[in-house]
Amino acid sequence: MKFPFIHIMTWLIALSCSTFIAQNEVILLNNELNYKHEAARNVNKDNFHSGVKPYIRKDVRQTNDSSNVNYNLIGATIKIFNDGNPKAPKADGAQNLNIQPLIDLTIKGQDENIKYNYAAGLHLTSNIGSKLGVSGIYRYVVDPNFNYLDSSLYIRNAVNGIGPQLSNNKNTHHAELYVNVSPNKYFDITLGNGKHFWGEGYRSMMLSDNAAPYPFIRIFSTFWKVRYTNLYSIHKDNNYGARQNKYATSHQLSWNILKNLNLTIFESVVWAGKDTLVNRGFDVNYLNPIIFYRPNEYLQGSSDNVFLGGSLKYVYKDKHTFYTQVILDEFFLKEIKAQNGWWANKYAVQLGFKNFDFIVSGLSIQLEWNMARPYMYSHLTSLLNYAHEDQSLAHPIGANFQEVVSRIRYQKNKLYLEAKFIYLETGTDSSSVSNGGDIFKPYTQRDREYYHTLSQGTTHYIWHNELRVSYQPKEQYSMRIFGSYAFRTALTEGIRVSHNLFQIGITSNLWNTYTDY
User: What is the percent of the chain where pLDDT is above 70?
Assistant: First the structure.
């Protein structure tokens, strides 16, 4: 049965605009721009739920972290209209519509190979009344990858983190739009085309902003110490000629058990919009906001891809955070106990620690371990895998890997420094047999039932060490001048290949782009 996704989006927009009941813009995802507020948002103060991003500004303001960030590029703001109410708080605004220019000019090099990244566009914010907020960006982008990413299976034909390329020049359109309606203190409805990140870590094994933006409806239900999230989304698969639709529905229950302890339960289902038998579209059976998907899947007689999992976060003395995620794709306890490497014991795990204001104010350290068993996130076809526009919706590597990430970050006024040290072991295919790393290959291409191990196949040992420095000429604006240098080494079958990677440029800094894998 088809689901009128666009009709519901249109209806919600019309409702919000006609009644002027909602404001509270969504804060765009960018690790560097939001770093200065990350420590304050880390604590479960005033029932804040830090593991569900992007945030709504009204939730962030509860942390008293001076979150009224001005996202202007260079102060050039076109005020389309403003009711001029001088008593209205800046974060709540009154009725206004602001448009700012965006720019991204970067020179990037891999050894002697020099490439140029440039983009231009607009950033829009609008507040209507006290409960409606709109935020979004549009950019025309030319963004060639580093050669080691171009030759990898983790991006395929996409422009990294943005979407399908329009030509061999790696050019495309980058559009994100978030319309948030908050009818009362219990519900927040956000719809548009954008990205999401679920978790406390640098990576997420649940849902990350690694892939391109996608159409979605997100519903927050907040009561007592609980936030329940429903996320309905449309994704694209490019592996069978014409781009085909696939759909996902995800639930997350976040419970602040104590001021310093959070428990999260997660489930998600992915299904193809069309198969050999029927054109399903959006299956209304997955609209149920509270049902567990696995029983529902069995009742439908389908082979949809279902994930279950959870996470914990514990904060010690407001500065030391311990966090973990465990995600199950398939799981059979008898086979786990046998310790025989059964192929269908598919799961992913994250363990992490981060500390804020370490020794001095503004300095933080983070250590994180991530792993995904072979065949995790894959299925019978890429129309059912956990991916969108040729990139993973979770970790950028996909599966069949383990990784250690360490980060040191420091911010002082206009200066931001970040050092990353990443070690990665991953296994790729050396023939037509799938070793479980490429989530776009069917898991039926395996060559055996048992004795599957992490990083099996052709094993790559990768060290990625990177230093980034950026300077913000004016603290109230998002534009930064930045430079970065990375030394990357890959060891495969006794052959060591090293690269010097550098970037220098100017960026508006309202999005994340991951090149460190």
Answer: 85
* Burial environment of residue 470 by CB neighbours within 10 A (0 to 12, 13 to 18, 19 or more): buried
Cβ pair 514, 202 in contact under 8 A:
no
Within 115-222, residue ranges assigned H as helices are: 147-150
Domain with 58 in it: what CATH number? Answer: 2.40.160.10
Query: Are the C-beta atoms of 162 and 138 separated by less than 8 Å?
Result: no
* Number of separate domains in the chain: 1
What are the pLDDT digits (tens) for 157-191? 789 999 888 877 788 999 999 999 999 889 999 99
237 membership: H or E segment, kind and range = strand 226-237
Token pair listed for 173: 């359109």
Residue 352: which domain range? 5-507
Digit-coded pLDDT (tens) for 241-266: 778 999 999 999 999 999 899 999 99
- Of 514, 468, 511, nearest to 102 by C-alpha is 511
- Strand, helix or coil for residue 147: helix
**Total Cβ atoms within 10 A of residue 86:** 5
Asked, for residue 320, whether it belongs to a domain, the answer is: yes
**Could you tell me which of 298, 271, 287, 234 has the C-alpha nearest to residue 385?**
271
Q: Strands (DSSP E) along 429-479, which ranges?
A: 458-471
Burial of 276 (0-12, 13-18, 19+ CB in 10 A): exposed
Q: Which among 504, 464, 510 is positioned nearest to 209, based on CA atoms?
A: 510
Cβ pair 195, 186 in contact under 8 A: no
In-domain check, residue 394: yes
Cα(328)–Cα(58) distance, rounded to whole angstroms? 33
Query: Does 517 reside within a domain?
Result: no
